[in-house]
Design a protein that fits this description.
By secondary structure, the chain is an alpha+beta fold. It has three helices and 13 strands, in the order H-E-E-E-E-H-E-E-E-E-E-E-E-E-E-H. The protein has a six-stranded antiparallel sheet with strand order 5-6-3-10-12-11, with helices on one face. Strands 1, 2, 4, 7 and 8 form a five-stranded antiparallel sheet that branches. Keywords: Endoplasmic reticulum, Glycoprotein, GPI-anchor biosynthesis, Membrane, Transmembrane, Transmembrane helix.
């Protein structure tokens, strides 16, 4: 591992995040730029996901088996069917990989999914805002300046492939220009009576058709 020029890294570290694709299923791309080459150091982004968005732990496990992403999710048991108003925040530690186009840049992506929200009045969408991630660094035998870096309370190893203890450090950085925003389509409360009536009518019609077919073609002993 190398000793990092932490004064430069602290002064110049920046992070950006983007929500790629459209709809309820997106890819969250996180990019970090340090002030110096951090070869030999592990770099991660720790972010809190609000209840309106989640990472599927089963999908994450599959991606990690194929070495497509590395992350730690807490809690690791998640109700992927729960709506936004019954869900809770999630803590995601995303391990970043070096960007081959830049010696002091790191990036990683992870699939995220929007949850269903309550119907709203006067608007057909809900807004989910992602806060800027916290940048974490772990350098073996590195001596980090206390002025720029401080120990972080992160109970996880330096990579998703190891189990040994690791001391992560966090640094102040220039946050993303603005938090990433996800606009989720929602129903309108003023349409609730119409939706309930149509649902009841459709359910009754389908039940009648099933019953009629069962009486006509069914074999009853």
């Amino acid at each position: 591992c190398v000793t990092l020029d932490v004064q430069a890294a602290c002064r110049d570290t920046s992070v950006t995040q983007e929500l790629l694709n459209e709809g309820f299923h997106r890819d969250l791309l996180v990019k970090v730029e340090l002030g110096e080459d951090a070869g030999g150091c592990a770099v991660a982004a720790r972010m809190r996901l609000p209840p309106g968005i989640y990472v599927d732990p089963y999908e994450l496990a599959t991606l990690q088996q194929h070495n497509l992403t590395k992350a730690v999710l807490a809690p690791d048991v998640i109700d992927v069917e729960a709506p936004e108003y019954l869900a809770r925040d999630l803590l995601l530690l995303l391990f970043l990989e070096p960007d081959m186009r830049c010696s002091h840049c790191f990036r990683a992506a992870v699939p995220v999914h929007a949850r269903y929200h309550r119907p709203a009045e006067g608007t057909g969408e809900a807004l989910v805002v992602l806060e800027s991630p916290e940048v974490l660094l772990c350098c073996c035998h590195g001596h980090l300046s206390a002025e720029c870096w401080e120990p972080a309370e992160v109970d996880t190893p330096c990579s998703s492939d190891t189990t040994g203890p690791c001391q992560w450090h966090s640094t102040k950085h220039r946050p993303a220009y603005e938090g990433s925003m996800l606009r989720v389509p929602v129903g309108l409360r003023e349409h609730s009576s119409l939706v309930c009536a149509l649902t009841l009518l459709t359910t009754g019609l389908c039940s009648g058709l099933i019953l009629a077919a069962a009486c006509k073609y069914g074999h009853f002993s």
